[in-house]
Amino acid sequence: MLPASLAVVADPALAALPGSSASRQPVPTDPATLADDADRLLDEPEAWATFSRSLAAQPGCWESQLVIEGMHCTACALSVEDALRALPGVREAVVSAGSRRARVVWSSDAVRPSDWMHAVRRAGYRALPANDAFASEPRREATRKALWRWLVAGFCMMQVMMYAWPAYIAEPGDLTAEMAQLLRWASWVLTLPVMLFSCGPFFSAAWSDLKQRRVSMDLPVALGMAITFVVSTAGTFEPRGLFGREVYFDSLTMFVFFLLTGRWLEQRLRERTAGALDALMNRLPESVLRQRPDGSFERVALRRLQTDDVVRVLPGESFPADGMVLEGSTRVDEALLTGESRPLPRAAGAAVIAGSYNLDAPLLVRVEGLGSETRFAKIVALMEQAATSRPHLAQMVDRLARPFLIGVLLAAAGAAAFWWPHDPGHALMVAVAVLIVTCPCALSLATPAAMLAAAGTLARQGMLVRRLGALEALAQVDTVVFDKTGTLTRDAMVFADVSTRAGVERGKALGLAAALAQHSLHPMSRALVAAALKEGVPPCEASRVQERAGRGLVGEVVQPEGAAQTLRLGSPLHCGVVLPATDAPRAVLSDMQGWLATFELGEDLRPDARATLAALQAEGLEVRILSGDAPAAVSRVAGLLGIGDARGACTPQDKLDALQQAQRQGRKVAVVGDGLNDGPALAGAHVSFAFGQAVPLAQSQSDFVVLGEQLAAVSGALLLARRTMRIVRQNLAWSVAYNAACVPLAVAGLLPAWLAGLGMATSSLLVVLNALRLAAHAPSHKGLA
């Protein structure tokens, strides 16, 4: 199946012409041929940008994101990693079993995408580009097949149980040998569809494991199924033979049904835990309506769009690119991209961002940014990095997965050898129970399921997790260090107060100052204009206004009385007045007579800053401020927020030194910043946050990126991280306790195969359900603030 990003839009008229080459071209129908054709299309260099990004730090290298189909466990992920890393030219390969995604860094000089696609297929799995629009179709097909396998297993299980029931309740002499044999034959016939159809994925995966000389969780499961069926078949064909005392078709079909039930529910729940990640990564449309020169519209593939194209975006569609509205008025949903939960109005002249949704009315939009240039692409890159990262606990489980599975096979062989002298048939069924009950599915899902659920919850709330392992570190944090400017405060200033010359009213002074200030983009000027509008003071008319950099403004202003005079607005030196020195930001207004008014300005604290810091302190965290701003300004903000430990005039090295000193004292430090000078501290912290408008360096060094303007997201992430680690510990404890309790029972022969299958499926399901609590009861920012 061809990826949508590479699909060729054929000309219908050409295809319809009799005798044309298009009509004579044979259409391949073999799945392997179609897959090879699709892989070869991926080798075209012009197609790489649709599913990969070039790495500036490594010339000639690309980073690609893949969806891996057919994985069920950590051992599967390790097998895919090994297959990819074995290829010359693949610099790095990271596969996450939880998200079923892979990140491949490869050199275009040594390897092509089709090479690592074939390597994944040879390993027994299937790889698709993560942004492949057709990737959902194979998933839906696989889901339908899985549902049919479950239905067949359930139907056959019920029939087999009906035929097996008389053997359980019959008294001696009630059931003749011929009738018992007939019931065995009926059970054998009904078990065949289960083995040939319902168990197909287990056997194909196990066969692939054997060919690749590796071990995954499907191997012991398939081995248990095969042993049970062979032993029961031998007992059916030779009732007086070595295994003729008892058959286990009922246990086999029940085990398969329970296992398929668990996997089906686990898949559905796992899709919910990572749903926000996928929802964000696949928001762009497959095709768009592009305007022709004559004003009509044609539907084209997204990859054919170019800068300055005009597209029509209908209600309910997502914007395909960053652009500007040319015609129309609507509301847009940017919740997953900016953290803004309310629909935002957009009219002609307004900017729209790729991946946001048009809610109300059709729009004409001129394309200004495409592909990697869009904010959406940068967000997706961060999300993909999180989806393929592995926390420390998950890495530890990964290292133990293969040795554990080998131990499972040895334990099953030892149990069979122990019981063989007593009853060979029973010995093999004990081995089957050991193979099934010790399968470490729950253990391998314990950490990634919870981490992905937390990452999806944070994504819905407007925070991106760049590294899943950061959730572990965040849960241990006891100190939070904030930058001031742009983090605790906004970039803008706010009007605080005004003092005027005797006889000059407050409103008049503000109107005169706003007349000059509206001709400048300086933060002080914008604050004065905003204050005049807020207080309903109409600005006076000004002419011949000149702005002198670093000093202020001068111009002629028509006063309310109608007289015009020259006014100055800016620093005391610029206005020719002498005032007491202060570190507080202020602007002076003067006329020909001298000082007219002084406007006191302050920094604009984020509305939720005080509540957020109070919430962190209530959780027992120490809060500090390290800022490059003047010490007096830092002290004022610290006093407003109730923070005792605040330092100003800090260079980037000063911030890093203070951070390292706290770490040497045993503190676990989180840093929240947004500026260039925060980069070293963000990189050196145990965990770090950057706001969505932060400079690229700050974002690249951070573990979390806050898309919106809510500082409460930081405290919300901390609480969620602590809750996540509690759930991870619960999952690990449950998984270990389950194996510790069931393995001795299986070895002792007290645990039948069907009950072992039910236990294995239930344990994995409980782990995923427990992780899903993170999404179902996530605290909101408002509740935290």
What's the overall average pLDDT, rounded? 79
Output the structural class.
alpha+beta
How would you describe the shape?
elongated
Main β-sheet, spatial strand arrangement: 15-27-26-25-16-23-24
Number of helices: 28
Per DSSP, what share of the residues sits in E-state strands of 2 or more residues?
A: 15-25%
Count of DSSP E strands? Answer: 27
Helix content: 40-55%
Rg over C-alpha atoms, rounded to the nearest angstrom: 34 Å
Summarize the biggest pleated sheet.
Answer: 7 strands, mixed
Low-confidence segments, given as residue ranges, are 1-30, 781-785
Q: What is the first-to-last residue Cα distance?
A: 49 Å
Describe the overall structure.
By secondary structure, this protein is an alpha+beta fold. Helix content is 50%, strand content 19%. Strand 23 (622-626), helix 22 (631-641) and strand 24 form a beta-alpha-beta unit. Residues 1-30 and 781-785 have low confidence and may be disordered.
